[in-house]
Structures are given as structure tokens and as C-alpha cells.
Amino acid sequence: MEGRIQRIKSQLHEASYKLTPQREATVRVLLENEKDHLSAEDVYLRVKEKAPEIGLATVYRTLELLNELRVVDKINFGDGVARYDLRKEGAKHFHHHLVCLECGSVEEIQEDLLDDVEKVVEQKWHFLVKDHRLTFQASVRVAKIN
């Protein structure tokens, strides 16, 4: 964890920001809950346990800054709540998600499934794709057909 914090600190410094104690507390909460998709309020409640003096606005500003610097990705699974997901180190793109419409569970898909689509977009429309997002919304698991 300490190595990741140092790398995030370097990213902040490269963008002329400091890793303040409040920002560090927020980053630590994100790292400790890397498997979860926490809302700003969830992050705030966990940070508040470590740094009682921190305010909700500070956590929001920190999360927005980390999103701008591509340390985290801000995502919405259609429930109106913005959630924050740490970007995997070295990842070229945001990873994909599978959201169950019945129970709300979220599964992460780490494989980059859109390489060919990106190439088509770049060639046909002459855009350089910087990132993409893909969320599958599903209900029941489909039986595997042989």
C-alpha cells in the first residue's frame, strides 16, 4: 500500500498538487476498500473514523481531483449515486462492470473487450480514443449452452 501511496503522491506532484493529510486519508480508504465501489458519502464516513476533523466537502474535492488525475474513476450504475473506483495501476482504460438488475451486485471485468471497436472508431472517424466505459446490466445468469 505504501508504494501505491507514493506513486499517487508523485502523480499529484506532477500536476502541482500536494498529498495533504486529508487527501492521504481519502486515498488510504480507497486502497483499503479497493474491491468496493464506494460513494463519496461512504468514503467520507470511513475517512472520518481516521481523521475526525475532515469535512464532507474536502472528501468530495479530493475525489474529484483524483478523478481528474485518473487515479480513480467516477462511475454510476444507474441508481443515481456516483461511486469511485481506483483505476488499476498501468491500466490503459477504465475496466468494465456487470451489474445485476435484480440484486444490485457488481462484478468487475478486467479484460479490455473493446480493442477492436477502438480501432474502428479511430480509423473510420479519425479520433484518438483516450478511454471508454462499458457496463453490462443483466438480470439472471444465463445457462451455458454447449
From TrEMBL:
Binds 1 Mn(2+) or Fe(2+) ion per subunit. Binds 1 zinc ion per subunit. InterPro entries: FUR, Fur_C, WH-like_DNA-bd_sf, WH_DNA-bd_sf. Keywords: DNA-binding, Iron, Metal-binding, Repressor, Transcription, Transcription regulation, Zinc. One of its GO terms (molecular function) is DNA-binding transcription factor activity. One of its GO terms (biological process) is negative regulation of DNA-templated transcription. Its cofactor is Mn(2+); Fe(2+); Zn(2+). Fe cation binds at residue 132. Zn(2+) binds at residues 100, 103. Belongs to the Fur family. This is Ferric uptake regulation protein.
